[in-house]
Each structure stands twice: as C-alpha cells, then as structure tokens.
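Structure (tokenized):
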C-alpha cells in the first residue's frame, strides 16, 4: 500500500517559517513512529504570483486534487495589495476551497490551561474549553444569487441572498454529526428559524437527519444571536456546533478568540469523500501571513503544527498520534515556553519560531 500523501503550500510571510517547524515534526513521526507521509511542496499566493503570474498554477490545483491532504501556511502581503482582485494571493486560497468543494470548515476553540489567562473572559469560564464549530463554507449568503449593487427607484440597493438547498444542509449536518460522535456526542445546530425561511429549512433537515441516522447524538437548536451571547456567557456548555456560512464566520471567530492568541488556532476544511473513504481536506492556521513579523523568527508555529495534528486525525486515521502531538504542544506551554505573541509586554525573552518547534520535538521525544 502506498504512503499517505500531503501537499504543503507554505505561501507568503510567516507561512514558510512556520512550515519549517512542521517539516521537523513530519520527520519526527517518520523516524520515531514509522509514520511515513509522502510530502510534496508547491507555491500558492504571492509566491506563486511571483513565479507564475497567478496565485495558484493549474498544476498545483491538479496536485491538490490528487493528495490525501493539503497543508497551507498563509497567503498575502503588502507587496500584492494593489494587484487586480482576480490575481490577489487570496484568490489562490479561494480557488482551492471551491475546486476541492470543501464545504465543511472545522474551527476548534480549545483553551490550553496554561494560556487561560490570555482570554478576554475570566479564567474559570475558559480553562479546559473544547468546542468544535462546523461552518458551512461553500453556500449561503456569500454565494447566493442574486447579488450585487443595483439601481432601484433612483437609488442604489445592495443585495445578497441567503440560499441553502436541502442537500447542502444535509452534507454539512452529516459531517457535524459524525464529528460529534467522535467527541462528546452533543450537537447544537444554529440558525435563525424565527425570522428566516432558510433557517426553518435548516432546522427541519438537521432534525430529520438526527432522528433517522444519529439518534445517539444529543441534538439541540439555538438561534444565532442567542448562541453569540451564550458563547461569551458560558462557552463550556457547547461541544459541537453546526451552522451556516455567515453565522459560522462570526461565531467561529468569536469562539476562537476566547482561547487567547491567533498563533494557536488551527482549522480544517473538509469536502466529499474520496475513493479511499477519506474526505478531501485542506488544513491551515487561522492566522494570516503576518507581514509585520515575517522573517524575524518571531512567529508562533503552533497553529500550523496543530493544523497538522488535525490532518493526522481526519485524513490519516492517526487519532492517537494526533493526541500525542496536541499533548506535546500542551506540555510545552505548561513548561512555560512562549513565543512573543503569548507573552505579556515586558516579560522575559520569548522563544523564537524554531525554539518553539524544537521544544515540541523534545516533548514528543519525552512522550515515547
Ligand atoms: P494576520 O493574521 O496576518 O496578523 C494579525 C496580527 O496577528 C499581526 O500582528 C501578526 O503579527 C499576529 N500574528 C498572526 N499570526 C501569528 C503567529 N503565528 N505568531 C505570532 N503572531 C501572529 O492578519 P492581517 O495582519 O490582517 O493580514 C496580513 C496578511 O495576511 C494580509 O495580506 C491578509 O490578506 C492575509 N491573510 C491571509 C489569511 C490566510 O492565508 N488564510 C488569513 C488572514 C489574513
């Protein structure tokens, strides 16, 4: 049987720096756990534009369709700000998501105890927090037609359309039910069925799937505005949340920041299952290319390392090794290793990107 495959697209800014640390971790799993992954690397974003005049070359897109998983660093930077919209670095990312049909965006909001002080909420509200938000990514009001700015009765009107088909709701709901089963078996479906027909349909479809195919998963429903309030009032009440594209965009950012730093947040986007039964998948940190610190060895590599842990769990069926990697990151933080983004101003000397990566490797060694 061939080895599982990974396409690394490091991208721009701090992307390549943090990816160096992930390569060390991939090499560690190969050497110490006999976990062999066939890795190829290619360009995306500004780096691809510099070489090919496009933020994603067709050959790279074709490679992304073939591999078991894509791991992306970050794209963008001031050098590309004035490019035409159609060739901006971000278009490379959007093309990957669209052509791989990555409809389920997984955003964990997990608070490592050692970082609970970094949250804007009280420590006791967030310590031990572990939520998974599943956001529908390819439909809803960011894509629905009609859309645009039109003239009507002598003035301009801006229009976007919230539109969901039953099958679009069905597939993201099933992904969320499956995830809930691997977690605490609780799913909260979020919409605004009180004022939106798309919300009524969403609730009906999710309820039917739950009753017919996932009776073991405890299903609840919540209006999106209440969910936003509950996330800051008592976030630990949630386990898995499934919601649409627009509400998911807002709620996942809100939940993620309960946990402290952007440098710690991983994500995954999953699509339809391939022949081997695994979903098409792209893993990436939530943060961007951080041009303000790029090239200075200051970037926190943990978000990208934890994104790789998600790949181990969801694309390579290596849940135990994913646990091992996440525990190694947790141990490093508990031992007090901090990159600059995890330190209060004026604190002791921060760890560099490579020192943080090396500390994770050391913790992995100690886990054996
Ligand atoms: P950003 O996430 O790049 O940076 C925001 C702030 O967080 C900066 O101060 C940065 O130094 C800090 N930061 C981010 N990641 C960090 C890390 N790993 N370690 C330490 N500090 C970290 O967002 P931005 O400044 O709004 O955008 C910069 C560029 O990135 C823009 O071109 C934007 O379009 C792009 N961007 C790309 C993605 C992506 O590739 N998925 C996402 C967001 C923004």
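Design, position by position:
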């Amino acid at each position: 049987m061939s080895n599982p495959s990974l396409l690394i697209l490091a991208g721009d800014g701090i992307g390549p720096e943090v990816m160096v640390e992930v390569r060390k971790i991939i090499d560690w799993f190969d050497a110490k756990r006999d976990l062999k992954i066939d890795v190829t690397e290619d360009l995306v974003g500004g780096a691809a534009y510099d070489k090919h005049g496009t933020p994603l070359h067709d050959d790279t897109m074709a490679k992304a369709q073939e591999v078991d998983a894509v791991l992306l660093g970050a794209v963008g930077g001031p050098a590309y700000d004035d490019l035409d919209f159609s060739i901006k670095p971000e278009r490379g990312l959007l093309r990957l998501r669209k052509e791989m049909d990555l409809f389920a965006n997984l955003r964990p909001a997990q608070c490592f105890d050692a970082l609970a002080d970094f949250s804007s909420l009280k420590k006791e509200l967030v310590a031990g927090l572990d939520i998974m938000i599943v956001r529908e990514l390819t439909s809803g009001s960011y894509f629905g037609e009609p859309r645009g700015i039109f003239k009507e009765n002598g003035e301009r009107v801006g229009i976007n359309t919230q539109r969901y088909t039953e099958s679009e709701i069905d597939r993201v709901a099933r992904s969320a039910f499956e995830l809930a089963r691997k977690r605490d078996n609780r799913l909260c479906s979020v919409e605004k069925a009180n004022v939106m027909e798309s919300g009524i349909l969403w609730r009906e479809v999710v309820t039917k799937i739950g009753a017919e195919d996932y009776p073991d998963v405890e299903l609840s429903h919540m209006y999106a505005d209440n969910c936003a309030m509950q996330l800051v009032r008592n976030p630990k009440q949630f386990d898995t949340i499934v919601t649409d594209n627009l509400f998911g965009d807002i709620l996942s950012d809100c939940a993620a920041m309960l946990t402290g730093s952007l440098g710690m947040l991983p994500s995954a986007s999953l699509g339809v299952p391939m022949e081997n039964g695994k979903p098409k998948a792209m893993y990436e940190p939530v943060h961007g290319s951080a041009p303000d610190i790029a090239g200075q060895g200051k970037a926190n590599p943990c978000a990208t390392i934890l994104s790789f842990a998600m790949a181990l769990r969801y694309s390579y069926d290596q849940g135990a090794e994913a646990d091992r990697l996440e525990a190694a990151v947790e141990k490093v933080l508990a031992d007090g290793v901090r990159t600059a983004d995890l330190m209060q101003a004026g604190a002791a000397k921060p760890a560099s990107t490579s020192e943080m990566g090396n500390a994770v490797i050391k913790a992995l060694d100690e886990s054996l």
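Reviewer-requested clarification: Residues 14, 74-77, 90, 93, 262-263, 284, 287-293, 299-300, 303, 341 surround nicotinamide-adenine-dinucleotide (CB under 6 Å). Residues 1-110+261-368 form a domain with the Isopropylmalate Dehydrogenase fold (CATH 3.40.718.10).
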